[in-house]
Amino acid sequence: MRIKKVAPTHNQDHRITIPISLSLDENISNFEYLFQDCGDLVKRKFPIGVNKNIWAYIAYIDVMIDRRVIEESILEQLIVQVRDVPKSIENTEENIFEFIKNGGIATADVKEIEKMDDVALAVLSGDTVLFIDGYDKVLLISTKGWPSRGITEPDTEAVVKGSKEGFTEVFRFNTVLIRRRIRDTKLKIKQLQVGLRSRTDIGLVYLEDVAKPAIVSEITERLNDFVVDGVIDSGMLEQLMEKDWHSPFPKIQTTQRPDKAASAILEGRVVIIVDNSPFVLLLPTTLNAFFQASEDYTQRWMIMSFFRVVRYMAAFVAIALPGLYIALTTFHPSMIPTSLIYSFAASRQGVPFPAVIEVIIMELAFELLREAGVRLPGPIGNTIGIVGGLIIGQAVVEANLVSPIIVIIVAVTAISSFAIPNYSLTTAFILMKFVIIALSATLGLYGFWVGILAQLIHLVSLKSFGVPYLSPFVSGEINEYSDLKDSILRFPTFLLKKRPVFSKEDNRVRLKMKQKGEQNVLKK
Is the model's pTM score more than 0.90? Predict the structure, then answer.
């Protein structure tokens, strides 16, 4: 009998609408029509049952599956073991399908699907599908086993003391790394799919009794606010979810560290895991959160409080130092001590450019070297940094293209930017630095302070999913100013008794010191 091929029609959501037929040959024809010219598809039709008169069809993508599971738990069971199924079961309506689903396959993760779209998605996700003649539904067998990068140390957030594990590109690996750290049934992983063609798995991870329902709902709504072909990385999702797209400052924090993600969840924040990306998203966030490193909580509070102060100072230097130098030397030299201004003047003898041109030349040269170092392989990138920092820097000074003081200022500015723990915030500061330079070069100190105040006003106006961006420095009364204990200074751990403003108001106590003989637990 000639089998009719059905064209792969799609609805508005790009879902396949081919029905699953009772005829195995028709299902095979339609399935292979969908996957025509897909050389990595492995498929086989084979008989099962006592008299070998029941036929089945198995299909999967090569290398995306665990071959041992398919050979030992599926094929061996169906071809060898299921031959002992009673004839009475073969000939009844309740049938071989339920027999195979419930006991014929030696693996726990088996379920039935009734749409060809789900069949195609399962195969493309690394699972195996099994068609059985006479049934208009299909068995989905979990056999994922694609090659992946192992769990390694994060290369963007290295610490001296703390966990050395980092997220990977595998969705389930990342969820497990969080589950290991928070063993609570209240930890929820709400799984979604984004992208009409990529069907990227997205996981919203949060504590049900700690995270605010309004924040979880808003995040879910934003994920449903757009329709896109595919989401390849968490960075794309971050940009699609942001409403304040005009701002250079990130409103969503990213991390490679499972311990940092788990800590954020315990604070009442929501973590978004994106399949194929080693970076997870933490939201909502504040400017203060970008200055907090994982190591802050594994070392003594006095030491880490000092380093936090250093980070805030470094952030100000990274934005303000070049502009301040231009404003003082160009418009207000009388504000500089006499001996120092003479030193500046002596170093600039023979330099043909004004101070603002010197600063822009060196800043752009440094950004060029930094970009080249990032794009090139490790050893070559390190070589570029040494060559650019030493040889080129020395050469331009000797050629009287720039003065030595400019090299020092640009170097201090660059080092200060590296002291900021978050790369996304660093890039925002780089852009703001050039704005300050432009205002300082045109209006002097007046322009410098106008630029600083404009940035502060802009930061005050920002919110991240309803949370003020400058919290706890503004709106600190919302949480009785307790969040200030973990801001510029990091107070001792036994004093950090309340969760930040991200969490539910009625469940913000996270630490209670026991009295002698007292047995008590935190509210759940």
Answer: no
